[in-house]
Amino acid sequence: WEYACRAGTITPFSWGDQIDSTLVNFNGNYPYSHGSKSEYRGQTIGVKTLPCNDWGLYQMHGNVLEWCQDLYGHYPSWHIADPRGVDVGDHRVLRGGSCFNLGRYGRSAARDSHGKSSVSYGYIGFRLCRM
What we know:
Elements (H helix, E strand, L loop, with lengths): L1 H5 L58 E7 L19 E5 L15 E5 L8 E2 L6
Parallel strand pairs: 1-4
Antiparallel strand pairs: 1-2, 2-3
């Protein structure tokens, strides 16, 4: 997920070091780092409403948290490429931040988790991919 979100970048967001509501649907009252406040919509918006990343993927940052296949677990303290998560558990990884989250939760590297009971929340979704 993170690889697709970054779209070849190494910055916190696929557009660079900062975001605003013209790029991401998030709680603009709480920008990332030292960014400026921007619009807080307080609800999800339609796909393709905001710009895509350099690989043509829309809303990898913000709008709805993306429910991932990986089970949630802490990363090891050593470097590992493409960590897969734990083998057992009740919580799935959520990525991308939502329309209600602060700017820092929309970073390409940010992760959260929720259990199965959370899937009915209106700010959690999933992305289909072809493998």
